[in-house]
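User: Could you go from structure to sequence for me? I need the amino acid at each position, not a summary. Structure tokens:
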């Protein structure tokens, strides 16, 4: 997997586990992605070494080799989503049983396990902090529908709450967004879930709420920037505490350019709500900051121009088209 591909999307590194399990070797560039803080790959590599792979890092690439992976007990120092997924895929074709302790619990972990089990894998406990994988000799093809993107769904929920619209977010699953939805209800957003999705309406002014990001099932760090926009126009003062990444408030200074009142104190953002934001040229620093600035532009007075939106396409397909269908005045400008 060459640098030109892996540098743009961190998830590209997830090919190393299944490749070394299936073919006995893999050479993958070290990953890129959003500059939101330290996201080392050491947990991936330690886990693969525990499974019997030899690892070499040279010239910006990781090379993994193994005649045959073997089951092992792996403890993750942090409940890393990527490491859990990578090691779960590798262990599926390893000899014997693998236990991953302190595993990530995100819905995406469960969905991956369901797909692998459908292919003939034997994975138990996905969605809990201990996952057991009994290795099999081979997998077979299946047809699998992946779960809806809960972060994209949450972003559209925020869009509706910001603008006072009445929007049905089709496919959104409340069970994947519980901590997030609890905070929105506290803020005065009316949420009505049904079989088709979540209907979002606003009942009066938005109230300020305090939020702390946590690993799943806590409040997702990937929805922190979007919530900050909502709090920027809420009544009162809110405190947003970021515990997952140390560099994930870069959108705050861009929101300040639009008239928001945000004071940063280490890993805390103190947001004093204002009556309205004003359109301004702003620059996106990462994927979630990109969508946050677009959401701010929806309610800002005047025109907002967001540059460096190439981040967006990694997490939001045709967002300008979807928002336009909801009545937003938004266009993508080439240049």
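Assistant: Here is the amino acid at each position, in order:
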């Amino acid at each position: 997997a060459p640098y030109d591909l892996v540098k743009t999307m961190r998830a590209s590194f997830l090919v190393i586990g299944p490749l070394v399990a299936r073919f006995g070797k893999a050479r993958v560039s070290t990953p890129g992605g959003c500059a939101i803080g330290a996201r080392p790959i050491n947990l991936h590599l330690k886990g693969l070494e525990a499974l019997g792979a030899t690892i070499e890092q040279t010239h910006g690439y990781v090379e993994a080799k193994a005649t045959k992976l073997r089951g092992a007990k792996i403890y993750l120092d942090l409940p890393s989503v990527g490491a859990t997924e990578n090691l779960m895929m590798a262990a599926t074709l390893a000899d014997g049983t693998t236990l991953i302790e302190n595993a990530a619990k995100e819905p995406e972990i469960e969905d991956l396990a369901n797909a692998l089990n459908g292919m003939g894998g034997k994975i138990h406990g996905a969605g809990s902090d201990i996952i057991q994988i009994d290795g099999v000799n081979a997998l077979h093809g299946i047809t699998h529908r992946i779960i809806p993107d809960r972060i994209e769904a949450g972003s559209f929920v925020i869009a509706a709450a910001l603008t006072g619209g009445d929007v049905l977010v089709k496919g959104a699953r409340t069970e994947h967004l519980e901590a997030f939805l609890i905070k929105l209800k506290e803020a005065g957003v009316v949420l009505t879930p049904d079989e088709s999705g979540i209907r979002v309406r606003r009942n009066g002014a938005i109230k300020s709420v305090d939020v702390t990001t946590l690993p799943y099932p806590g409040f997702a760090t990937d929805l922190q920037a979007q919530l900050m926009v909502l709090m920027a126009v809420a009544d009162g003062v809110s405190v947003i505490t970021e515990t997952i990444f140390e560099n994930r408030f870069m959108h705050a200074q861009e929101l300040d350019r639009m008239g928001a009142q945000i004071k940063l104190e280490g890993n805390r953002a103190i947001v004093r709500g204002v009556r309205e934001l004003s359109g301004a040229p702003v620059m996106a620093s990462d994927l979630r900051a990109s969508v946050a600035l677009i959401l701010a532009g929806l309610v800002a007075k005047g025109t907002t121009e967001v540059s460096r939106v190439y981040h967006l396409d990694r997490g939001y397909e045709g967002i300008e088209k979807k928002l336009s269908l909801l009545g937003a005045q938004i266009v993508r400008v080439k240049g």
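One structural detail worth keeping in mind: The CA atoms of residues 1 and 28 lie 5 Å apart.
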